[in-house]
Design a protein that fits this description.
2 domains; elongated; Alpha-Beta Plaits; alpha+beta; three-stranded antiparallel beta sheet; 42% helix; single chain; 185 residues
Amino acid sequence: MEAQIKVEDLNTGNGLLSNDLSNLSQRAQNLASRVSSLEELAGFQPIRGNGIQVIIEPAVSPKFTEGVDLGIVLDSDVALIVNGMFVGGAQAVAVNDYRLTSLSAIRSAGEAILVDYQALIPPYRIVAIGDVTKLERELKSGITSEEIAEISKGYGIRFKVESVSQISLPGSNIPLPKRASVRND
């Protein structure tokens, strides 16, 4: 009798543990799915969708002031477009196929434009995935468009904005940060 009660208790405990395991397994799958979608939005996983692209090219007839070519594309011109795309609601942005993340930097080194320390070669192709109408509105009639027009008129730099169907953007190739911790030295 006592052995039978023990067996029943063990079977009951087994059933409870089995349910717990099933629940934990489901939670783990949900968390893995959430991490994957957050990595996609953060720029660490490939993403696909509709959007726009902007091609930036140097001036055809450059203007020189004190020996400086004013018709070259600057890092600030690329950053202007990238920021305009995010203002327009972009979910993901890449510059010459380098996917941007919150850790990305757009800089210059001499005349070279760098994205995540990778030198880019003109023409500069900036692609964004998102609501095409909102993205185009910002780049064709929003505040960003006014700055584009000023740069284009003043320096001859060429900007071409067009919608694109089914864009595929790679995940960023910079290492995904794990986590920070305080060192106790």
